[in-house]
Design a protein that fits this description.
disordered N terminus, 9 helices, mainly alpha, 62% helix
Length: 165
């Protein structure tokens, strides 16, 4: 159970936290304020969330625009996906940037979480016997078919200069 929980926590952290640096220092396990059932449901929902075909370049441009605008995310440890979406929607100045790139706050949070979770499961599949969310096969194909775009998005999520070689 602990291994499964750790895997899901790592996947959530890989998905959401690189895009939201303020959270990165605070979330390493299932959010303390979120019960295990909610956390597992959130991971399943994120794993199934369908990414649009143009997600990788569009999300990269969105992240870069958010960074260029100097918009910082709110402090959101211990929140469910629904609560994170609500907090994201409340960030001053963010909604117009998201809308300009074709995202709602929900699309943004779910997309970045689905991407990070899928990428984490591709890069480090769970050990045998460990139950983990099954990523959407179309998302796996998108990331595998466009590895450079996926890497560019991951670098953008890490912040300016993050992850570049």
């Amino acid at each position: 159970m602990k291994t499964r929980t750790s895997l899901m926590a790592m996947a959530l952290a890989a998905a959401v936290l690189p895009a939201m640096p303020a959270l990165a220092q605070q979330q390493a396990a299932p959010p303390a304020g979120v019960d295990q059932a909610t956390f597992q449901r959130d991971m399943q929902e994120a794993a199934r969330y369908p990414l649009p075909a143009d997600f990788l370049p569009r999300m990269t441009a969105t992240i870069q625009a958010i960074q260029a605008a100097g918009i910082a995310p709110p402090n959101t440890p211990n929140l469910s996906l629904a609560q994170t979406i609500d907090r994201t929607a409340s960030i001053p100045g963010l909604a117009p940037i998201l809308a300009a790139h074709g995202f709602t706050p929900r699309d943004f949070v779910m997309g970045i979480t689905a991407f990070g979770l899928t990428e984490a499961l591709i890069q480090q599949p769970p050990p045998p016997g460990v139950q983990a969310p099954q990523p959407n096969p179309a998302n796996v194909a998108l990331i595998r078919n466009y590895p450079q775009d996926a890497q560019t998005l991951a670098q953008a999520m890490a912040g300016p200069g993050g992850g570049q070689q």
